[in-house]
């Protein structure tokens, strides 16, 4: 039973770390990356649709992306959605078949803003890991009568070590992203 609690906690903590890494990828660094537009919702004929379902996104060079829509009728909607992205600061252009997005150079001030955004997302991930720990601890407390207090106490120590391992993973991912953001 304790193993089941651990398996569930580990799975939830892993999901929290993976969600944080995906969230970090959407924050712009100095280079253009298709992941920047991964979560972009486009108003496609009145329905919010994720950009990857409407178009392919590829790097053209270090500071520009090319978006090739599957339906040419979606080009205006894709352009508008990119213009409305507040943290991108790009002005897309289209030549009738593709949308080109050239990203402006990041100023030091803008880089620091992005570090704050990533820091907040890292804290959200740590909270997710701690919530998984709290849930697992409640499950372990419920098992005290069945497996004994000594086993539960030992399991709680292992749970703390597991929690530290996953929060360290979040911290490491944050440090990598911060270094990438502040690199000029």
Automatic annotation (TrEMBL):
Localisation: Cytoplasm
Keyword Ribonucleoprotein: no
Ranges of residues in domain Ribosome recycling factor: 21-182
Keywords: Coiled coil, Cytoplasm, Protein biosynthesis
Chain coiled-coil ranges: 145-172
Main location (coarse class): cytoplasm
Gene3D superfamilies in the cross-refs: 3.30.1360.40, Ribosome-recycling factor
InterPro entries cross-referenced by the UniProt entry: Ribosome_recyc_fac, Ribosome_recyc_fac_dom, RRF_sf
PANTHER family on file: MITOCHONDRIAL RIBOSOME RECYCLING FACTOR PSEUDO 1, RIBOSOME RECYCLING FACTOR
Described purpose of this protein according to its UniProt entry: Responsible for the release of ribosomes from messenger RNA at the termination of protein biosynthesis. May increase the efficiency of translation by recycling ribosomes from one round of translation to another.
Family recorded in the similarity comment: Belongs to the RRF family.
Entry protein name: Ribosome-recycling factor
Record organism: Leucobacter albus
């Amino acid at each position: 039973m304790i193993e089941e609690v651990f398996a569930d906690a580990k799975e939830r903590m892993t999901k929290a770390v993976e969600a944080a890494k995906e969230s970090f990828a959407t924050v712009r660094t100095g280079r253009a990356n298709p992941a920047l537009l991964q979560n972009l919702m486009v108003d496609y004929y009145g329905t919010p649709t994720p950009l990857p379902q409407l178009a392919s996104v590829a790097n053209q060079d270090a500071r520009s992306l090319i978006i090739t829509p599957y339906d040419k009728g979606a080009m205006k909607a894709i352009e508008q959605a990119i213009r409305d992205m507040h943290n991108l600061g790009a002005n897309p252009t289209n030549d009738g078949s593709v949308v080109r997005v050239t990203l402006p150079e990041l100023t030091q001030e803008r880089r620091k803003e992005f570090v704050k955004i990533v820091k907040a997302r890292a804290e959200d991930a740590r909270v997710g890991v701690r919530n998984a720990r709290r849930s697992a601890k409640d499950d372990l407390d419920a098992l005290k009568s069945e497996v004994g207090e000594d086993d539960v106490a030992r399991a709680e120590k292992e749970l703390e070590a597991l929690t530290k391992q996953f929060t360290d993973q979040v911290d490491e991912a944050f440090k990598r992203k911060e270094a990438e953001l502040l690199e000029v």
